[in-house]
Task: structure prediction
Amino acid sequence: MNKKRITILGGGESGVGAALLAQKKNFAVFLSDSHSLQQHYRQELMQHQIAFEENGHTEKIYHCDLAVKSPGIPDNAPIISPFIQQNTEVISEIEFAYRHCNKKIIAVTGSNGKTTTTSLIGHILKSSLTDVAVAGNIGVSFARALLEPKSIYVLEISSFQLDGIKYFRPDIAIITNITPDHLDRYNNRFENYIASKMRITMNQLPEDHLIFCAEDESTTHEIDSNRAIHARLHRYSLGNEPYSAAYIENKHLIIHIKEKEIIMTLEELALQGRHNIYNSMAAGIAAKLIDIRKENIKQCLSDFQNIPHRLERVATIHGVTFINDSKATNVNSAWFALESQNMPVVWIAGGVDKGNDYTRLKELVKARVTVLICLGTENEKLKNAFSGDVDIIEEAKTMDQAVRIAYHVARPGETVLLSPACASFDLFENYEDRGNQFKTAVNKL
Result:
């Protein structure tokens, strides 16, 4: 009997993970990447005797029964059209992995906070359960995580990954928020991006759960107007709203699920700042729905160590504090970072603009930023956006240069904040590379 043939488009973590899972499930696998593969992925494919090509796609990719595409490839990419014309199904790696998973899934999406929330849920669950995997858009791919089966999967899911799903159905879905991001991918239409994020709940049933922020207007409007949502709804809010699953009362965080309450003071939370209270609420609700003991939830919300590159304190040098928020790849994320600062800020921003609207940042920048350092190959839009709000605007073409400028202009008591509000691909491999270069440059001062 002939094996079912599968083409994997893209040879990063998502693609290689899918290839390994497909081989385990007895597919005939062929992987193709338009660029050169990273050495460790190339070696992994060779070690498992998986056929592949790199530095360009050939006609071989169309000789298949199923195609799995990288999240970075849009549905309307020219390479996809022949698959559609020959009636070959094209799905995302998340969808492919889901079809080979019969375990419980918690899936987190949103414009901001999804990595922190996903990590926090994983931290809480691992305090009580031994076989938990945290995967998806964080760490290893969902497909790779399935190679060593667990009882529950906590997944960070991007809009790009949701674009390629068909049957993917999480038991618990979380939408942290929806603010303009990646609009270049969505024809500069915010409603298209919102629709992509909402796909996380499209297959959920009445026994499933959808957790969302009551203060996020885009999410609540979509939920209030969308009759196709079948999951049980759990709201969280910073207001005193006892009908919510989580809310604030007298500076206490209250999580109310299944007729039981978890109560903590806000000072007890490991992650401070308004955006992190939201993240803690979402994680606490999800953990309680999984029946984690409230003592474990409280302990984990108190001792969690924040993820790298997210408001990560790097050093204090001669009274100047350096904070790495490289993961702030959109305007809303940078807003949270600036809003959380109590001291004057030297702000390092810039990179690949994704159709950003900087209007929302203007009042915060005017009130808190003393110097703006534009780090990128094309800085005109960023400079023009804040030319009337910041007295000093500098430009840098390397991270070393940006950090040196920041060090010289910052005064004792001020904060140097790397919170780019943009993608990193003009000067760096990814946001991790950008954040690591920032930390290296700071440590050389």
Q: What stands out?
A: DSSP finds 16 helices and 20 strands in the chain. The domain at 312-443 is CATH 3.90.190.20 (Protein-Tyrosine Phosphatase; Chain A). Residues 396 and 402 are 5 Å apart (CA to CA). The mean pLDDT is 92.
